[in-house]
């Protein structure tokens, strides 16, 4: 269940909508005690069916985990207590609460609304509460529901009432013995809350103590606990409302969560889940309250032992807290996450075959390891998690890797899977078929995203993509960290032991991949000594050699080229033969002796055509001495002999006949004598005639044309079109075709294909056969067909023909011209395909040789509005001719204006989405929170996002790829824009440094989020500029004399000391971008960083510190227990000695007296009997308090003795428990301690059969009247 949606799920528009029996909270007859309460049917939850929204943000950057409201929030002045710290609230709760309130009563008919004044109705209802107090529970609940209904129908009514007056009327409900009555009381209070002041009144009336009692006893039914929890959550909807939640309230939720009730049903279990999510929400709003309540222990335990949804929720709540210094201090800078590693550490050192099979059968163990592996993988693919792992020289990572020493195959396999996943070698192999995969599919189906198993696998990233170098930079960093922490020795040890073939294979694969990544992604000087395996065994050497040995797998193109090469060798060997052998071959074909073509030796005939007959002398010899040979052979292929054309396409030798016919035509066209022979042969006039049968303008008709669709599909008649293709491959053949006016016939046939599909098969077969490499009329026919033919033919030309032709050097210019001239096609689908073809063509050539395309003056408007054209335009900028073309058209100025006027964070959103999809491919695309946060314009209206415009990720990189682009930045407007970006980075960095993490939690509102996102987006822009060939000259004062500040040094300062970890991670990427040029590498070298270059001395945009990798993040463990406020809250003594009454910050009593001193613990009404003297009363009170302390003893004997002693006191002197002073002192003790649910239940039951709550209420009413 999503944290942001939990409030809505707890509060339907008509309250308990999903459980009709609780829509109007009506007590069950006889439910005045726990036994009778069992007859109530609890509300049903289905948390599994509710999708966990934080699974989305699971795979996003930490900055996008927390929704931000659309308006800035004003913060109240903080007090000296830990409860006064204000932490950014979850705005989704507020928005959903507002929507819920505004929707109350909207579905009711007008006739159901009382026409009388709501104020009069309220007065009437409140007056009736004075008399209903003594009535039965049914009437009380009915009146309470009427009051709730009135507030639902009139949500603004709560702003016009005096809350104390209503509280004095309904406070009796919280002392009632029926749980449903108390439930209605909480429900009424929830609808009374309107602002911060209303919360002050609630805590004055000790409502928090009532909530603690409700959560700590079994007399409270589930419906009462639900209403109390809703009231707690209502505090969160008020600005700074979490200030009035106490440690006692949180501890009561924790005790309830940790309770193990054997009779617990699914509803109660789901309610505990909601309690955990409530604690998670409060941890974002007020983490110190959760810390001092022990709530982080619950969150971490839920990560380890909870469901997949809850584990993901809790993990990314911690991710968010790790981003800020003051909140991660409470998690010891993330070192508490080491508990997740314990899942592997608790398993045995080794397992035998039987134990291994036992583990395989133990689904719980496997599922627990799967979840831990999944969560650790997420941690290591996020900078917050990686920095938390870096404490104590990556001790947590070393603890994880040390588990590889165990001879436990299950542990080894899962850890190796983690390493494969975080390095993006391959994804977790079991993820798709696990319960985690089921949750991901459910989430993706909710987002209408892909949910098949393919989304769980990593896809290959194109080298020219923006994220390619970023992902490699992070992978290189992980590789460096792993290598420095001895991963190679551990893997070699596993290979040497060879206890399991599967594990050995995985270890070998990981070892070889890590070694390759070291060579490709890391500078040799940092890892040179780690790449030498001095103690490697022969077994390991053999396994590594076996896995790295290249296995040649021939491709289809390789096989085809090999066949052609072998055929040429075979033909050349038979080119020159003696006369006897030649005559024997001619005779053996049996063409001269037998008329039936079935009896001819077609195989020998093919050898003759390819070999001896290609010799001009042999060819002329046959023409002179055996003219019947060619005459009979050509007669077979003549259309009107109906021999060749009647052969079924399914016959055994059909393809051989066509192949020999094509070879024969090629033979004739390759020889002068052959051309003359063809010119006089009847095959060409007959070929012209069968084509004319398809031409409606020729006047030649046939009942069934030889080239009709039916014959083309069922016979080898399509071979004649292949013959035309052979003619198109030579100048002589083209001349023959032109002589017989075949081109005119073909153009007429094309004209008929506009709205007629009958000739489609004819045209498609023709185009597949024609050779367009020569500048002939076939190109004209192709152009005409693309313009006038029907859609099927156009799509064939675009998808099959042109992609083949554009890769032919002889057709390249023709196809590019054709594509550019066709960009104005009104069919947007066709234009999209054409642009994609151009983009794919130039991308395959690394966008080189674009000068001709630019000379064609392609439509900038079309390219800028069609997907794929953007890449072409940005690459135009990298060529002087392209830059001039775009500048002259005014395009560069227009696009630069978009960057100057960019007021949203679409650029940042786009980059973070790419990084997220690269590391978490299984997460469907969701709108980032950043995209919803806009910087406001001067007039206060948010600017429109430009994510869909030309503002490409590569714009500045390519703009600064030429000297012309560098000169463009010398203009005032462009220079001013860059100065503005740099100044904003400097100013925001200075603010963050001045805060030093102390004020950031109080400012995590809309304005603060905009500030941080603005810094991140500006840093990405600087990185994009640094990627340009001449970009570094704009950033280094050595080149730019106008540069006032060294922005590169500022980036390094942010990386080394920024309190926000995500910004430190972003700066790591920016440093890699700075290293994209030789000048940038030199600058980094001065700052003790080393860049990575390839064999051609070209930068790979990767850079790492020269110092020890252990100090790269310089994160140390922090101890929140050394905080002086911690001991203040634990010991109940104020540092300035102002807390003389014994209150301590965060306690229920302290919280309730932040705004009033109406309760005097000493001066209470003496309601005890006269036989107890004051001294005896004090001694008994002290004795009770001591015994309650003993109840929390770790020694069972002492605990049992205290339990008996308290029961004895209760039996002998029950009136002592009527003392408000004693009760409030007990509440203080419970708030301080860590009492389990059963102990809380026992303690509060000592007081619940007395009138102590009534006494406290009477005192509060008197104090309120005095005020």
UniProtKB/TrEMBL annotation:
**Where does the Rapamycin-insensitive companion of mTOR middle domain start and stop, copy by copy?**
577-807
Extract the Gene3D superfamilies matched here: Leucine-rich Repeat Variant
Which stretches does the entry tag as region Disordered?
19-46
User: Which SUPFAM superfamilies did the record assign?
Assistant: ARM repeat
Q: Give start-end of the signal peptide.
A: none
Residue span, Rapamycin-insensitive companion of mTOR domain: 1012-1091
Q: Transmembrane residues, as ranges?
A: none
Q: Name one GO cellular component term.
A: TORC2 complex
Quick one: a GO biological-process term for this protein?
TORC2 signaling
**Domain called Rapamycin-insensitive companion of mTOR N-terminal: residue spans:** 141-523
What family is it from? Belongs to the RICTOR family.
Q: What is this protein called?
A: ARM repeat-containing protein
Q: Which organism is it from?
A: Suhomyces tanzawaensis NRRL Y-17324
């Amino acid at each position: 269940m999503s944290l942001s949606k939990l409030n809505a799920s707890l509060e339907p528009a008509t309250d308990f909508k999903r459980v009709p029996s609780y829509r109007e909270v009506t007590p069950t007859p006889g439910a005045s005690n726990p036994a009778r309460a069992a007859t109530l049917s609890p509300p049903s939850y289905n948390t599994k069916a509710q999708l966990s929204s934080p699974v989305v943000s699971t795979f996003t950057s930490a900055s996008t985990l927390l929704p931000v409201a659309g308006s800035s929030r004003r913060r109240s002045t903080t007090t000296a207590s830990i409860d006064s710290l204000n932490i950014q609230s979850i705005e989704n709760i507020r928005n959903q609460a507002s929507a819920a309130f505004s929707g109350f009563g909207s579905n009711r008919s007008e006739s159901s609304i009382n026409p009388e004044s709501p104020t009069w109705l309220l007065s009437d209802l409140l007056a009736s509460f004075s008399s209903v107090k003594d009535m039965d529970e049914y009437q009380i609940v009915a009146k309470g529901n009427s009051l709730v209904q009135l507030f639902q129908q009139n949500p603004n009514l709560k702003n016009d009432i005096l809350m104390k007056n209503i509280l004095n009327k309904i406070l009796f409900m919280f002392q009632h013995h029926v749980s449903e009555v108390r439930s209605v009381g909480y429900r009424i209070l929830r609808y009374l809350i309107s602002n911060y002041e209303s919360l002050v009144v609630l805590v004055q009336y000790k409502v928090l103590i009532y909530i603690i009692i409700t959560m700590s006893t079994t007399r409270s039914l589930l419906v009462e606990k639900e209403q109390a929890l809703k009231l707690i959550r209502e505090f969160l909807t008020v600005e700074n409302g979490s200030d009035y939640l106490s440690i006692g309230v949180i501890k009561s939720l924790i005790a309830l969560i940790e309770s193990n009730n054997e009779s617990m049903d699914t509803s109660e279990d789901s309610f505990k889940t909601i309690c955990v999510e409530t604690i998670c929400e409060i941890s974002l709003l007020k983490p110190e309250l959760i810390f001092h309540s022990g709530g982080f222990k619950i969150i971490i335990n839920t990560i380890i032992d909870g469901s997949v949804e809850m584990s993901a929720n809790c993990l990314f709540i911690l991710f968010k807290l790790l981003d800020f210094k003051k909140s991660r201090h409470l998690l010891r800078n993330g070192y508490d996450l080491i508990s997740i590693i314990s899942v592997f550490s608790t398993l045995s050192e080794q397992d035998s075959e039987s134990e291994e099979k036992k583990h395989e059968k133990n689904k719980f163990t496997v599922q627990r390891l799967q979840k831990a592996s999944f969560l650790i993988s997420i941690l290591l693919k996020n900078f917050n998690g990686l920095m938390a792992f870096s404490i104590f020289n990556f001790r947590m990572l070393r603890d994880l890797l040390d588990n590889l020493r165990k001879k436990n195959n299950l542990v080894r396999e899962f850890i190796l899977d983690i390493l494969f996943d975080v390095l993006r070698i391959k994804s977790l192999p079991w993820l798709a078929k696990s319960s985690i995969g089921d949750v991901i599919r459910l989430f993706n189906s909710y987002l209408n995203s892909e949910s098949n198993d393919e989304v769980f696998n990593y896809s290959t990233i194109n080298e020219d993509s923006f994220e390619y170098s970023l992902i490699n930079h992070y992978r290189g960093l992980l590789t460096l960290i792993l290598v420095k922490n001895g991963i190679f020795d551990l893997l070699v040890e596993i290979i040497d032991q060879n206890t399991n073939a599967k594990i050995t294979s995985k270890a070998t694969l990981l070892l070889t991949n890590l070694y390759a990544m070291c060579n490709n992604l890391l500078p040799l000087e940092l890892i040179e000594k780690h790449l030498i395996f001095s103690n490697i065994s022969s077994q390991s050497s053999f396994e590594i050699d076996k896995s790295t040995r290249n296995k040649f797998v021939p491709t289809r193109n390789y096989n085809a080229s090999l066949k052609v090469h072998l055929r040429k060798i075979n033909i050349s060997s038979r080119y020159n033969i003696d006369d006897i052998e030649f005559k024997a071959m001619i005779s053996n074909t049996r063409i001269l002796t037998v008329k039936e073509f079935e009896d001819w030796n077609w195989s020998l005939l093919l050898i003759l055509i390819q070999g001896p007959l290609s010799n001009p002398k042999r060819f002329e010899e046959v023409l002179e001495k055996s003219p019947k040979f060619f005459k009979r052979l050509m007669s077979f292929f003549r259309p009107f002999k109906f021999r060749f054309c009647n052969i079924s396409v399914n016959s055994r030798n059909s393809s051989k006949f066509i192949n020999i016919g094509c070879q024969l035509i090629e033979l004739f066209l390759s020889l002068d004598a052959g051309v003359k022979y063809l010119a006089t042969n009847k095959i060409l006039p007959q070929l012209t005639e069968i084509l004319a049968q398809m031409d409606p303008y020729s006047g030649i008709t046939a009942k069934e044309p030889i080239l009709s669709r039916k014959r083309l599909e069922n016979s080898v008649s399509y071979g004649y079109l292949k013959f035309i293709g052979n003619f198109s491959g030579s100048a002589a053949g083209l001349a023959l075709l032109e002589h017989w006016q075949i081109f005119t016939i073909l153009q007429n046939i094309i004209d008929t294909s506009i709205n007629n599909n009958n000739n489609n098969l004819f045209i498609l077969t023709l185009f597949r056969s024609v050779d367009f490499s020569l500048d002939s009329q076939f190109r004209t026919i192709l152009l005409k067909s693309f313009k006038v033919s029907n859609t099927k033919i156009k799509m064939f030309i675009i998808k099959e023909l042109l992609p083949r032709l554009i890769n032919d050097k002889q057709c390249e210019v023709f196809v590019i011209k054709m594509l550019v001239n066709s960009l104005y096609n009104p069919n947007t689908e066709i234009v999209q395909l054409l642009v994609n073809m151009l983009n794919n063509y130039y991308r395959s050539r690394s966008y080189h040789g674009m000068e001709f395309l630019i000379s064609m003056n392609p439509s900038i408007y079309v390219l800028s509005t069609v997907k794929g054209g953007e890449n072409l335009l940005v690459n135009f900028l990298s060529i002087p001719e392209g830059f001039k073309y775009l500048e002259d058209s005014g395009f560069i100025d227009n696009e630069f204006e978009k960057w100057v006027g960019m007021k949203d964070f679409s650029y940042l959103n786009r980059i973070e989405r790419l990084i997220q999809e690269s590391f978490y491919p299984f997460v469907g695309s969701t709108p980032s929170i950043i995209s919803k946060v806009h910087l406001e314009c001067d007039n206060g209206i948010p600017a429109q996002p430009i994510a869909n415009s030309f503002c490409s990720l590569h714009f500045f990189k390519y703009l600064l790829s030429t000297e012309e682009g560098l000169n463009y930045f010398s203009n005032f407007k462009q220079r001013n824009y860059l100065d503005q970006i740099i100044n904003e980075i400097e100013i925001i960095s200075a603010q963050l440094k001045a805060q030093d993490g102390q004020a950031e939690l109080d400012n995590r509102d809309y304005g603060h989020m905009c500030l941080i996102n603005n810094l991140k987006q500006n840093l990405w822009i600087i990185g994009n500029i640094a990627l340009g060939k001449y970009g570094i000259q704009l950033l280094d004062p050595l080149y730019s004399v106008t540069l006032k500040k060294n922005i590169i040094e500022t980036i390094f300062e942010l990386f080394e000391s920024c309190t926000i970890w995500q910004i430190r991670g972003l700066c790591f990427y920016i440093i890699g971008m700075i290293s994209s040029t030789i000048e940038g590498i030199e600058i980094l070298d001065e700052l003790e960083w080393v860049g990575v270059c390839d064999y051609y001395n070209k930068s790979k945009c990767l850079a790492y510190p020269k110092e020890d990798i252990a100090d790269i993040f310089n994160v140390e463990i922090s101890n929140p227990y050394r905080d002086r406020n911690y001991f203040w809250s634990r010991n109940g003594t104020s540092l300035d000695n102002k807390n003389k009454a014994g209150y301590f910050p965060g306690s229920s009593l302290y919280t309730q007296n932040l705004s009033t001193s109406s309760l005097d613990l000493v001066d209470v009404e003496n309601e005890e009997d006269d036989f107890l003297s004051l001294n005896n009363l004090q001694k008994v009170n002290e004795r009770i308090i001591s015994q309650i302390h003993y109840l929390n003893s770790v020694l069972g004997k002492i605990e049992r003795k205290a339990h008996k002693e308290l029961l004895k006191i209760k039996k002998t002197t029950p009136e002592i428990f009527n003392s408000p002073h004693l009760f409030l002192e007990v509440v203080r003790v419970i708030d301080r301690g860590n009492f389990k649910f059963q102990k809380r239940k026992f303690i509060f039951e000592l007081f619940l059969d007395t009138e102590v709550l009534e006494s406290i209420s009477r005192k509060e009413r008197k104090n309120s009247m005095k005020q």
